Structure formats: C-alpha cells, structure tokens
Amino acid sequence: xxxxxxxxxxxxxxxxxxxxxxxxxxxxxxxxxxxxxxxxxxxxxxxxxxxxxxxxxxxxxxxxxxxxxxxxxxxxxxxxxxxxxxxxxxxxxxxxxxxxxxxxxxxxxxxxxxxxxxxxxxxxxxxxxxxxxxxxxxxxxxxxxxxxxxxxxxxxxxxxxxxxxxxxxxxxxxxxxxxxxxxxxxxxxxxxxxxxxxxxxxxxxxxxxxxxxxxxxxxxxxxxxxxxxxxxxxxxxxxxxxxxxxxxxxxxxxxxxxxxxxxxxxxxxxxxxxxxxxxxxxxxxxxxxxxxxxxxxxxxxxxxxxxxxxxxxxxxxxxxxxxxxxxxxxxxxxxxxxxxxxxxxxxxxxxxxxxxxxxxxxxxxxxxxxxxxxxxxxxxxxxxxxxxxxxxxxxxxxxxxxxxxxxxxxxxxxxxxxxxxxxxxxxxxxxxxxxxxxxx
Length: 440
Hints:
- The chain is an alpha/beta fold and about 450 residues long.
- The protein is about 40% helix and about 10% strand.
- It has helices at about 15-30, 45-50, 70-75, 80-90, 95-105, 120-125, 165-175, 180-190, 245-255, 275-285, 315-320, 330-340, 355-360, 375-390, 390-405, 410-435, and strands at about 5-10, 35-40, 55, 110-115, 130-135, 210, 230, 260, 290, 305-310, 325, 345, 365-370.
- Strands 3-2-1-4-5-6-7 form a 7-stranded parallel sheet, sandwiched between helices. The chain has a 6-stranded parallel sheet with strand order 10-9-8-11-12-13, sandwiched between helices.
- Helix 10 packs across helix 14 (about 375-390) and helix 12 (about 330-340) crosses helix 15 (about 390-405).
- The longest helix has 30 residues, at about 410-435.
- The protein is globular.
C-alpha cells in the first residue's frame, strides 16, 4: 500500500478545465492522499469550498465583466483566438507562474499538470519532482492519424486521403504558428534543453501522460506519446455549491423533457443571437426548452410558454431529464451530454470545439452546425433529425450507459499511484547505495 502523498495539481481555464482535476483531487483524498490545487485566484473560493487546499498561481485571471466583452470576443475568435489567449494572456506570465509553482512544489511528492500550465514542465525539469502530465481532449495529441479540425480550416478533414506521413509534415509546420519568444528566452535562462513546443510535445511528461477522456470518444493512435494512457472522462460529482434552481425543478416536473441550450462558461460571453434563435427553433418544433444563459447579460425579457431561462444548473441533475442538448462543444459539456445519454447538436466556436464535435458525430450521437449558420429554421431541422430518428436516440442511450460504467478519476489515480510506487522503487536503491559503498 502506498503511503500518503502530497500531490500538486495545476489547472487553468473554464469549469471544463477545473472539474476533471477536482474529480481527481477528490479521488486522491478518498485514498488518503493530500491533493493541492494550484490555479488562478479566480477559483480560490470554489476550490476551498470543496475542501481542497488551494495555491494561487499566476496569471490571476479575473471573472469576466460586461466591459470585458471585447476581450472575450478576441479570445473566442475562431481564427486568432488561440494566438491571443496564448501570447497576450498566458505566455507573458510564465515567469511569474514559475515563481509561484516553485514555492508551491516544495514538499510535494508529485506534480500533475494541465495542458496549458506552461510553467509546470519547467518546474519538473528544474526540480526533478516526479511529473505526470495530462490532456483533456484528443486534439492535444495533434495526431496525423486522427487530424485535428481547426475551426477556420475545415478543409483539413479532406487531407486524410494524403495519408499520415504527409499530414505529420503539415502539422509540424502548423506548430510554428504557436512559438513564443518570451517562453523560449525564459527556458534558455533556466538552462533547460529544448523539448519541443510547450503546447504540444513539450507539455507531455516523458513518464506518464493521462488522457482524461474515454476510449469511446477517441482511440489511441500510433503517433500518440507511448507513455499516454486513456483513463475515461473524470466527472466531478461535488459541484453542489450552486444548486438546481427551484423554479427549474418545478419546470422539469411539469411537462415533457425539454431541449437544453447552453454555451458553457466561455462561449456564453459571445452568445450574440444564440438564445434568440434557440427560442425561435424550439417554437418551430413545439418543444419545451431550458436556456442556460450564464448571467444577466444574456437575460431574456419574455419567453413563450414552455420555456425557462436560468443562469446555471448542474448538468449531472439537468441533462438526464432533457431530450436533447445544443451546445458549443467544450470537452466538459460534450462529455456531460454523452454521459446523460441524449442526442446533441454542437455549434463550435473556437479551440478544440470543432474537433470534439467531430468525435461526438463519429459516435452517431450528435450533429454539427457551423456557428455562422445558426438560424432558427436550420436549428429546428437539425434537432428534428436528432429527435425523430431512432438511431440517434438509441446510440446516445447506449453510449451513456457505457460511459456511466467508467470511472476516469479512479483510473487516473490508479495510474498515479502505480507511477509513485515505481518512483519509490527506483529511489530506495539509490538511498541505500552510499551506505553499502562505505564498507569498502
């Protein structure tokens, strides 16, 4: 049995980035370990309310406000959003993040990193702490055998016919768009070797990479890191600091299963006409609807009968009572829809969302609609197919049943403990060797 370990977990981003690591932290705590979550100051209250130790790590991203709409529009831009996020909001703070993590890692037995925790791999290399990295979505592996689908280069999906060798060469050139001089300068100052892009191969631990999604969602590919292990989605069951609104519970009790329309916690800031068109689509179908609007910014003044708008609701409670969901394709929301066993219409905005949509569509449980074509009549047609063709409903039900049998957090913790045991076995002979040698 492994002794109690202090495990430092880094993560940044939306709830979809936070919840899987909170699920792992909860499982580690149940096994007697001491998980510590290092993230932006934004999540201090959420993490501490859940009973976890919290360490603030820069950048300290503040909750978006109404005046930040322009900034969020830049972040969610399908063409330039990734570059803006990386070069304006993340890479400039690598030095500060390194300082924060260097203090936090003191006394820790293991470091578990999120894919955009850019200071984490540097800390692992300079301190020698046992390091496990992770990815949340298959696009992070940038596979030539399962090519990513950037939101602005949809034609890339047709390049498969050229084969993985050509695709690998193309993707290697594509990585050049994500080089950052600030990061490279800091790496050189630390005297560390170039281990590849901090976004791609440089983000992967050479010992163990946890792929925190299901094999149903994406199968391992020949060019994935050989140390990658697929765990299943890590669902967090403790998100009860914000309960189901009473009025929503009453609404669900009073009629047929509704369609849920949501944009998660990121795309909701650039919703534009999403909710207006959603209301019109539900009216065309004669279906009840739940609109998760995020906050008062997307408030709907008047709603037709059979519809309700609330800021937030726990997916774990809401989605099993829905007939379908329309969403942006964030991996957290996508996984919740799959687990609930309902068909989904995905409207990708940016980042990994088009790729997640493609993987969900392959499963036969989802359809994809480009953001530029999100109009009520088209939305109603797509939803009608999902709701009336039995294949979608039956396949979604089966996928949900299978996913509910998986426990990604437990599988991830099994691998972490196995890794720690191996590290311990390597360390013991090294500690004993000087005493043995002193007898010469």
